[in-house]
Amino acid sequence: MTDSGGTPAGGAVAATGWFRQAVQSHRAGDTGAALQGCDRIIDLAPSKQALAAAHNLAAVVLAGQGRLISAAHHIALALDACPRDPRLHAHSARIQRSLGRYAAAAEAARSACRLEPRSGTRRYELAHILRRANAPAEASNETLDEAESLVRDVSGRDTSLANEASLLLAEIMLDRGEPEKAADCLRAVVDRDPEQIRAWAMLAELKNGPHTGPEAEPPLERLADTADDPEDRATALFAVAHLKLGRGEDSPAFQCLRQSNALRAEANPFDPEAWEHRVAVETKFAATRHPGAEAGGVAIHSAGGRAATGSGGEDRVFVVGMPRSGTTLCEQMLSAHRQIFGAGELTALEIIQAELLGQQSGESSVHNPAWTLETARQAYLDCVPPQAGGHARVVDKAPRNFERMALMFDLFPRARVIWMLRHPLDTVLSCFMQDFGPGQGFSNRLEDIARVYAGHARLLRSALRRWGEAIELVIYEDLVSRPRETANHLAAFLEVPFDPAMGHPERNRRRAYTASSEQVRVPVNARSVGRWERFRGELESVSKWLAGEGLVEADGRSRLLAYLEEDSTAGPRSGA
Asked: 3-state class of 189 per DSSP?
């Protein structure tokens, strides 16, 4: 045996040391060193187990950087080495689920179940994936039936998962449009564990019956004060705030919102300066870049420059805009059309951008796939649900894709973009009132929401000058007050015949999994238009700042459309 790894035994010893160092580097946040350590083990390949462990660790490191496609590549190589390891199949399922590849995720989760047939955790994970795999389809399909059967089986065989299983079963019942059965599942949870905040919060959203609505408020108020986890306290406070809002108790409701958002901001800080820097880079590329050079501000190579005619993305539709600006309602309207498929909020563009940035930074494994324009485009298409096939138009409704317009049009130069716009103050207020969880860090401070809104407006102004013919602006207030007229206009923009079903998005049986999932189940209405006026006092400082940016008048009226006509070379007018 030698320390240099010159013999098989020496190689195993060296690999063990490198693996420990790679783990330590990962824990210290040194991505480059962690991946280099994995590469050394992979190149040495002392055993199949060591090879699988190195690829699995590389997948963990890359996934932590948002580079999920490379992570999926490494976990596939790990499975090639150790195909009967259920933990690797489960890890693969989680990565594929994060990519939105639910068919692949379900296949991996089924493999984990077969290898660990007695594991309730594996069956629960499969059920969770199957429920989300149902998103583009009607709520009564056999996939949802299988998910329900798995959850009930987990409830009966694994008491440690009883609460999680009941919560998932409640969500499935809501998907089916059966709130009474959902309430029964949630009551079972709080009967077993009165401290279960998520169950109380879900019950608070239901409108009638025991332990629902106002009856959930006292336990939620108590738990908001006593829960150990700040995340749990924030969840309870959001639920209490919305119960108070429903009774018209605006001032105490807003106080709860301030407290809950403060907890989230502390746990999930947002850096507005870093975000505005990215906006400035994207704005520059939208205004000055030449075709085929770079994608979204990062280098990308293509043998053929721009996409060929056959791959120009004529069928691609991107619905973008600030969160809470009506993007979900717009997608529900579009997907009601027989020729239009709603793919939901795909994360593909965000992930591809992270992959390209990682490749450019040098913090990459030599065993990662190489990225070109063609491979990036195919990676995006691989994340689109297979049910999209045969439709004339496919809608990707990830609102914040407005942050990567250059990449979008490099991959699909003939794509169409629908950009949703809503009154700046209504948008700021709605984001602040929404419990996004950790996914939208900017939404926890009114000032940060305003800055993101202003940055999004600057991006739009530049995008209109660069790709104006491909972008259709839809005003939220017009959509909710004149839905049929707006739908007719959108059909013309997408070059499909008008379908009367578009005028009634609430009848669309497709399930939406976003913060607006319940709003789109009721007939289109304008009840939330102008809601900011109820909170003039709370929004006073933000309103003044937005006025300084030229986005609202001194009295709060929107001047967004006038702003878009102004000189796009100017940067932010003021700081927040």
From this structure: helix
Given a cut of 50, whether residue 523 has pLDDT beyond it is: yes
DSSP label at 529? T
Phi, psi (5° rounding) for residue 431?
-65, -40
CB neighbourhood size of 571 (10 A): 9
Parallel/antiparallel/unpaired status of strands 316-321 and 416-421: parallel
CB atoms within 10 A of CB 300: 23
Alpha-helical runs (H) found in 28-117: 31-44, 48-64, 68-81, 86-99, 102-115
Closest CA to 384 of 126, 99, 130, 109: 99
Q: What is the DSSP string of 199-231?
A: HHHHHHHS-SSTTSGGGGHHHHHHHHHH-SSHH
Which tokens sit at 536? 């003039």
275-345+391-527: what fold?
Rossmann fold (3.40.50)
Q: How far apart are alpha carbons 420 and 474 in whole angstroms?
A: 5
User: CA-to-CA distance for 233 and 227, rounded, in angstroms?
Assistant: 6
- Per-residue pLDDT of 380-414, as tens digits, reads 999 999 889 999 999 999 999 999 999 999 999 99
Convert the pLDDT of each residue in 180-198 to its tens digit: 999 999 999 999 999 999 9
Question: pLDDT digits over 43-72, tens only?
Answer: 988 899 999 999 999 999 999 999 999 999
Cβ-contact 490, 334 below 8 angstroms: yes
Assign residue 211 a region: left if phi > 0, alpha if psi is -120 to 50, beta otherwise?
A: left
d(Cα 62, Cα 351) in Å, to the nearest integer? 11
Alpha helices in 468-569 (DSSP H): 476-481, 483-494, 540-548, 560-564
Write down the pTM of the prediction: 0.88
Q: Reduced to 3 states, what is the DSSP secondary structure of residue 293?
A: coil
Q: How confident is the model at residue 554 (pLDDT cuts 50, 70, 90)?
A: very high
Q: Give residues with Cβ within 8 angstroms of 223, minimum separation 6.
A: 195, 197, 200, 232, 233, 236
Whole-angstrom distance between the N-terminal and C-terminal Cα of the chain?
63
pLDDT value of position 574: 44
Q: Does residue 12 carry a pLDDT above 90?
A: no
Distance CA 217, CA 200 (A): 8
Q: How many residues does the chain have?
A: 576
Tokens at 145, concatenated: 């039936």
Token pair 């580079």 is at which residue?
67
* pLDDT of 176: 86
Nearest in space to 73 (alpha carbons), one of 300, 358, 379: 379
Residue 433 falls in which region: left (phi positive, over 0), alpha (psi -120 to 50) or beta:
alpha
